[in-house]
Amino acid sequence: xxGSSTCKVIxxxxxxxxxxxxxxxxxxxxxxxxCKNFGAVKDVVEAYPYADVAGMRYTKPxxxxxxxxxxxxxxxxxxxxxxxxxxxxxxxxxxxxxQYGIGESIENNPYARNSVxxxxxxxxxxxxxxxxxxxxxxxFHSALTxxxxxxNEQKFxxxxxxxxxxxxxxxGRIDAKWLAYYLPSIFTFNQELEGRTxxxxxxxxxxxxxxxxxxxxxxxxxxxxxxxxxxxVNNFVKADEENRxxxxxxxEEVECRYLSMYSHA
Length: 265
Prior knowledge:
Largest sheet: 7 strands, mixed
Order of helices and strands: EEHEEHHHEHEHHHEEE
CATH class: Alpha Beta
Low-confidence stretches: 242-265
Distance between the termini: 33 Å
Strand order of the largest sheet: 3-4-2-5-6-1-7
Shape: globular
Radius of gyration: 19 Å
Mean pLDDT: 86
Strand content: 15-25%
CATH topology: Leucine Aminopeptidase, subunit E, domain 1
CATH architecture: 3-Layer(aba) Sandwich
Helix content: 25-40%
C-alpha cells in the first residue's frame, strides 16, 4: 500500500500535547557532532527525553564537539521509542543526521574553516571539509531513505502519521533551496512510504505570511506554489481513533494549538 498522494499541512507545534500518543512519528534534524540541542529541537527533546541523541554524546576534552566514537553518521535516521512506563504512550521520534558540523555549511562558516586549518583531529577536519551545502542536501535525501526503510520494519507497523516541521534540514529557513530541493524530497518520501500520512507542521502566522514576505522575489514566489497547493488540515485525528469509521463510530478530532515550530540543526 502506498502513502497518500500528497502531504498535508497542519498548523501547530510538534511539542503540542495532541501528538503525545502512539502511532505518530515526529521528525527532527540535527548535526553529527554537537553534544547539546539547539532551538526547537531542544523543545522536542525536553518533551520527549528518550529522543535526546545529541545529549548522549560525550564531549571530546578541550572541545565543544563529540568524541569520534559518539559522532553520528550523516545521512542516517535514528529512531527512538519510549522505553519507560512514563512515556509508553508517547510517539516515536526520528532524528535525521542531515549535516556534519554545527551551524552553517563550510562555505558560510568561518569558525568551521578555522577548525579545518588548525584542528589536530583529522576525522573532524575531514568531516568539516565535506560539510558543504551540496553534501547536506545529499545527507537529507539519504536520511529520508533510511527513515523510510526503518518505518517499513514490522516493529513500526503502528506508526500511521509522520510529522515534519516546516524548514527541516535548513535550520527552519523556508528559502529557495528548501522549497526547490528539500520540500520535493519530502514529497518523494511521502509517495514511497507505505500506508502512512505525512504532515508538514507549521505555525499558522508564519505559513500565512510566506507570500507577503517573499512577494518581491519571483523565484521564491513561484517555488511556494507546491506548498500552497497542499491540503490544510485544521484538526488532527488521533492515531488510535483513525479506523473507527469502519466500525460505525465517529472519529475523534483534537484541536491543534497554533504555535510555530522550526527544526534547527
